[in-house]
Amino acid sequence: MLDAYTDLLERRGERAATLDAVARAAGVSKGGLLYHFATKHALEAGLLARLDTLVTADLAAMRTAPEGPVEHFLRSSASDDTPFDRTLRAVARLSQSSDAARQALADVNTRWLAQIRDAVGDDDLARTILLISDGIYYGSALLREQGDPTAGPGAREIDAAVRVIRRLAGNEGDGADGSRGSLAARAD
Amino acid sequence: MLDAYTDLLERRGERAATLDAVARAAGVSKGGLLYHFATKHALEAGLLARLDTLVTADLAAMRTAPEGPVEHFLRSSASDDTPFDRTLRAVARLSQSSDAARQALADVNTRWLAQIRDAVGDDDLARTILLISDGIYYGSALLREQGDPTAGPGAREIDAAVRVIRRLAGNEGDGADGSRGSLAARAD
DNA sequence: GTCTATAGATGGATAGAC
DNA sequence: GTCTATCCATCTATAGAC
């Protein structure tokens, strides 16, 4: 049922994610849905709880990614096939009218920033990487159409950003060869 | 009436922007509102038409900004007091469930990219700047709460991004002194 | 042009059978 | 646990007075 709710939020927006539509998509009746989630607010709370679990797992995956945490982070910003990204996009849509969802997104950002700063050792660069990720993410979350996954930022934008950050990371000083400076730091 | 519609979309989301609420906020009755905009769809179309007018003016302002087009562009990404930015945020909210609004946002991005690329002369950097701007913009659009303008990215994030881009621009080659390379190009 | 009144559809939620 | 039936509020839109 949370899957159906996520899918509707992501693909058709908050307004279309009615109890009726969620129940139909989940293959149950409205009454059946309301047995598990007594109110619409409870359904939302269930989604936010799931997000919290998934973000913890994502941070752990970032730390051990072979391409390094930053590149893994940016490339996964537009991924559309993991439960985590789908949940995040759904919550972003909810955040329009829900303070709790907005707070949940802010918390995710805070946790990401801490880990990226830890990886690159540069507060300015970490915040900029977060912004680039937000650009990729929100663009892909909001501009993506139902049937057109090519809308919004795609591989082209992400590759451009990765190259730009590599230039910076390569010029930082501690690195050396220019192809992988602090970008890939702590990836080993 | 478009002002009232914009304000409701921006502050309380698509779902709260009902004909009733818009009419009340505009100080007219529902019937009065529907005299000028026969359907809700017509109201939306009116907002998109206004956006088109405002983006044209914004591109012109970018070209003549004293701090250069890129810095002007990034700093204005989180501005909350211009009619253009308020309209853009409102349309971003509509884009959840409206194909026309989504297309309008994509068009704005296309026009921005062309102008930024023209200013920095580097496609990768231009696309990255767009992503940073989207990060600032969507963050400020979506995380901003009714009474808390400090949520989402603020001056701190923007300053960080400007410094990072300056580093890049200063390292580009054609510039020289490092404090203003292609960043401020064509600003004179 | 702007209003009130109301129609018709749909939203969230409850009651009670099975 | 899941269903159908139903209540009540609200939404878009129409009709018609002023």
UniProtKB/TrEMBL annotation, chains A, B:
The keyword DNA-binding applies. Residues 18-37 bind DNA. InterPro entries: Homeodomain-like_sf, HTH-type_TetR-like_transc_reg, HTH_TetR. Residues 1-55 form the HTH tetR-type domain. Keywords: DNA-binding, Transcription, Transcription regulation. It comes from the Bacteria. Signal peptide: none annotated. SUPFAM superfamilies: Homeodomain-like. GO terms for molecular function: DNA-binding transcription factor activity; transcription cis-regulatory region binding. PANTHER family: HTH-TYPE TRANSCRIPTIONAL REGULATOR BETI (PTHR30055:SF234), HTH-TYPE TRANSCRIPTIONAL REGULATOR RUTR (PTHR30055). This is TetR/AcrR family transcriptional regulator. It comes from Pseudoclavibacter caeni.
